[in-house]
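Fold this sequence, please.
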Amino acid sequence: MDTEHSPTDNSWALEPLLDVGELAAYLGVPVSTVYDWRTRGLGPRAYRFRKHLEFALSDVRI
C-alpha cells in the first residue's frame, strides 16, 4: 500500500469549482457583474467546460 497517500489524504482530490451563480453569491455581487468582469478582463480566472464557466476556489480567494 502507498503510505504517501492514504484514502483519507486529500492531496489527490480535485479543487472545488464554483459556477457563475455560486461565485456571484460568494462575492455578494449580481451574476451580471461576474459576466461584466469577464468581458472587461477582470475578476478571477475562469475555466470553460463546454458552455459553462467554472472558477477555482483558490483563484477566488487570492
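Residues 31-40 form the longest helix (10 residues). Helices lie at 20-27, 31-40, 57-60.
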